[in-house]
Amino acid sequence: MTPNHTTNLRARRLRRALAASLLLLPCGAALVPAPAVAQAARSYDIPAGALATALNRFAEQSGVQLLYDAPLARNRQTPGLHGSFGTAEGLSRLLAGSGLAYRQTGPGIFTLEAAPAAQSGSVPSGTVQLGTVTVEGSAIDDGSTAPQTATGHVRGYVATHAASATKSDTPILTTPQAISVVTSDQIRAQGAQSVPQALRYSSGVQAEQRGVNTDGEEYVYGRGFRLEEYLDGLILPDVGYNIASYEPYTLERIEVLHGPASVLYGQAYPGGIVNLVSKLPGDTPVHEVQIGGGSYGRIQGGFDLGDRLDSNGDVTYRVTGLARSSGSQIDHIRTERYAIAPSLKIKLDANTDLTLLANAQYDPKAGFYNFVPSQGTVTANPNGRIPTSLDVGDPTYDRHSRMQWGGGYRLEHRIGETWVLRQNLRYTHIEDKLDALLAYGLGSDNATLNRYGFINHESLGQIALDNQAQAKFSTGALSHTVIVGLDYRKINYTQSYGFNFAAPALNVFAPVYGVSLAAPAYSGIDVVGQDQLGLYAQDQIHAGRLDVLAGLRQDWAGSTDHELVGATTTRQVDQKLTWRVGAVYSLPFGLSPYVSYATSFQPTIGVAYNGATFKPTTGQQVEAGLKYQPQGFNGFATIALFNLRQQNVTTSDPDPTHTGFSVQTGEIRSRGVEFELHANPVKQLSLIAAYTYLDNRVTKSNDTTGAFANNLGTTPYGVPANQASGWADYRFDAGALAGLKLGAGVRYVGSSYGDSLNDFKVGAYTLADAMFSYELGHAIPAMQNWVLSANVSNLFDKRYVSYCQSAALCAYGLRRNVLATLAWRW
Fold first, then answer.
1. Are 290 and 272 part of one and the same domain?
2. Spatial separation of the C-alpha atoms in residues 345 and 362, rounded to whole Å
């Protein structure tokens, strides 16, 4: 027969409910066991039970591909597999008594079929050969050092599946929206010390727009808008200065969903979301301890441990921790962090998994948060250039600390061949305390910096809950994966803040510290409660080479703000219907064109002159693109074209008698092109390339001359039109250089406007990064499991300004930073 279509789905999420009409198997093939392949024996621990589940585990643990019809494995049992076997022997034992046989159809590829009656004596009458489903381990050796986890389908820097776009483990190739994935191997190789640093080489993302301020507050932007962060699919707090800041060493990967995401996640900015995926227990034991040191007196240590707690592997654990202390390029500023993230996975029965998660992170010194003026940094200053090390605050006054902790669980229960029920819950607590002398512009002498005292103390608690019911079934020629969900989020937080404008000025060219300034009295104390309830439904429809994604969501959001100093109370209630629809057509050579339309909403706090509360801002996006995943090659590329609009943006009330009030007549348009490539052309070589073109514009506004306004016809400040990056590293496997890995990268960020009036521009800059690692066992046999590595960011110590939001408020970028690490992995 002629092949009609092949769907490649990796083993981890292929439960017993897959129904597909894909590749028709050749008729008349000899159904006999294949000869043993040349592969070293592996250890297996697969319990007796449903054959489909056992085949999934075998594919994962053996690293081979299994091709078979989904209905073929239904209602069949296996005696299981325990012990060390070669691939052929192990597969034969697993299939014993099932009525199935296998044959090898390619390197590392095995096809399962009904055995002839002479072989099994149990072939069902009237057997119909249907299309195959591919259950895939990996036959690609890409040098990945990261253990493979239950989702993600990651090899090296290449991820082929992601959960963020659909809340199910879905091939990126068949998802009609741009997705970027940063794997743990990439995080490790590039030496990322924060989430923004890990996103440096992702398309469409301005990871470090705020430069040195990124250490203090991890603002990330995408397509010109803020990106909210999620942890394991549940939203993280983003209120005031209560912005979660997670240690990347505790993360398995980072997924960026580009564009509106409200259809699954509720209120969100239109640029997209960043989903942080925790390191969790897996089938592969993990043992690592590391120490490191580097620039500015940095010293740090970490550990990552995981294994089974029982002989059957029904209970597994993972615990990751890190501690570090460092100076910074800013005089007097140090950072400290202590983080730990334990997790426990329990297989309650054959169909039920429970994962318990917790994390705690304390930053007693949370980093710099301040600004320098444009004169002497971006533009000329008759007194000279302001040093990049300048502390514009005062070490006797400035304090910034953050404490965050949380815990929860993920529960999954499978019912028969069709249903999966999931419940994810997490509680998060954050306390952020910032006392700082903040800058607000130079005096007339272009040397004296005006400052004010500022205090901001916040405490927040959030509970997030997501309930899902997933069903996989067929209606005629259509295969469906339907998810219906109900999620809930509740926040209670307190913010106390104050200002003191009697702070002494600072000569930026001859600074003198030791200021005596009384702490400001609280000018505002807000006690705020927010909640959101969302009901959503989504259908992923597969028909031949066509995949259609459609979703709908209704949200109800409310907030209450009690301002204690002014004794006022503000209440606001919003509701919004959002939706998404998209389609992907998969061509036989790995190219998939797609198109999608998606919407978003974000509540806007405030009232108009007439007392009416503001409506939510809304986002609408049209996106079209191409995704390419060549068969038999570890690589993935995406090019996306998009047109995104945010509406109901607040602008100044045009009525001259309504001074200080706003109306919602503004609109911001973001359109552009994004390209991203991750590939292993050969097993030793890893490549990353990205390019972004953005054309952002305020298309509707009552403002034309506002200093901090969305002025009609202008480009929002800090948004470059062009960004490009490239990374390559090579691992030597033989010869005198065996065990050595070398890598380098280049990042280009184009110029951006420095204020809302577009009066001046911040110049473009190009930065270089480099890395090396060496497996010490190649030179010292006694150190077989030791790896020495070093990373250098901003290799040539480029001095640059990352962005400005006005002539008074600019941020320097990070100077050269070196980090060396010695790790023991066993």
1. no
2. 25
AA identity, residue 668: I
Q: Which helix (H) or strand (E) holds 58?
A: helix 51-62
Burial of 654 (0-12, 13-18, 19+ CB in 10 A): exposed
**Residues 412-430 as b or e (16 or more Cβ within 10 Å = b):** bebeebeebbbebbbebbb
Q: Where are the beta strands (DSSP E) in 97-153?
A: 100-106, 109-114, 131-136
Which CATH number fits the domain that encloses residue 781? 2.40.170.20
Q: Are 583 and 543 in contact (CB under 8 A)?
A: no
**Does residue 145 belong to any structural domain of this protein?**
no
Query: What's the predicted TM-score (pTM) here?
Result: 0.83
**Are residue 644 and residue 502 in the same domain, yes or no?**
yes
pLDDT at 260: 96
Please report, for the chain, how many H helices and E strands are present, in that order: 7, 51
- Helix, coil or strand: residue 17: coil
Q: How much is the pLDDT for 27? A: 32
Judgement on whether residues 189 and 74 belong to the same structural domain of the protein? no
Instruction: Give pLDDT, residue 111.
Output: 83
- Report the number of distinct structural domains present in the chain: 3
What integer pLDDT is reported at residue 105 of this predicted model?
67
The answer on 304 and 193 residing in a single domain is no
Predicted local distance difference test score (pLDDT) of residue 408 = 97
Count Cβ atoms within 10 A of the Cβ of residue 297 and give its class: 0-12 exposed, 13-18 middle, 19 or more buried: exposed
| Boundary-marking domain end, from 243, 277, 311 | 277
Question: 474 and 523, same structural domain?
Answer: yes
499: phi then psi, degrees, rounded to nearest 5: -135, 150
Our CA dihedral for 329, 241, 325, 364, rounded to 10 degrees, sits at 130
Q: Smallest Cα–Cα separation from 228: which of 633, 488, 601?
A: 601
Specify if 762 maps to a domain.
yes
Say if residues 418 and 369 touch (Cβ distance below 8 Å): no
317 lies in the same domain as 267: no
Same domain, 192 and 93: no
What is the C-alpha to C-alpha distance for residues 304 and 281, in angstroms, rounded to an integer? 11
Alpha helices in 101-159 (DSSP H): 117-120
Three-state SS string across 631-682, please? CCCEEEEEEEEEEEEEEEEEEECCCCCCCCCEEEEEEEEEEEEEEEEEEECC
Q: Which of 277, 303, 330 is the last residue of a domain?
A: 277
- DSSP assignment of 145-208 equals -SPP-SSS-EETTEE-EESTTTSS-EEGGG-SS-EEEEEHHHHHHHT--SHHHHTTT-TTEETT
CB burial of residue 349 (10 Å; 0-12, 13-18, 19+):
exposed
Q: List the CATH number of the domain containing 50.
A: 3.55.50.30
Amino acid making up residue 255: E
Q: Please, what's the b/e burial string for 17-54 (b: 16 or more CB within 10 A of its CB; e: otherwise)? A: bbbbbbbbbeeeeebebbeeeeeeeeebebbeebbbbb
Whether residues 234 and 283 share a domain: the answer is no
In DSSP terms, 569 is beta-bridged to 562
Is-contact 742 730, C-beta < 8 A? yes
pLDDT averaged per 10 residues, the chain (length 826): 38 34 30 39 76 81 76 80 82 88 75 64 38 39 41 77 92 96 96 96 96 89 95 91 90 96 95 96 93 97 97 95 97 97 96 97 94 97 97 95 96 95 98 95 95 95 98 95 97 95 95 90 94 98 96 96 93 95 94 97 89 92 96 92 96 88 94 97 94 97 91 96 98 94 98 97 98 96 95 98 96 97 96
Q: What 3-state DSSP class applies to 61? A: helix
Direct distance between the N- and C-terminal alpha carbons of the chain, in angstroms, rounded to an integer: 49
Q: Indicate which CATH number applies to the domain containing 235.
A: 2.170.130.10
Domain extent, residue 219, equals 154-277
In a domain, 143, yes or no: no
756 falls within a domain: yes
Compute the distance between CA of residue 826 and CA of residue 824 in angstroms, rounded to an integer: 7
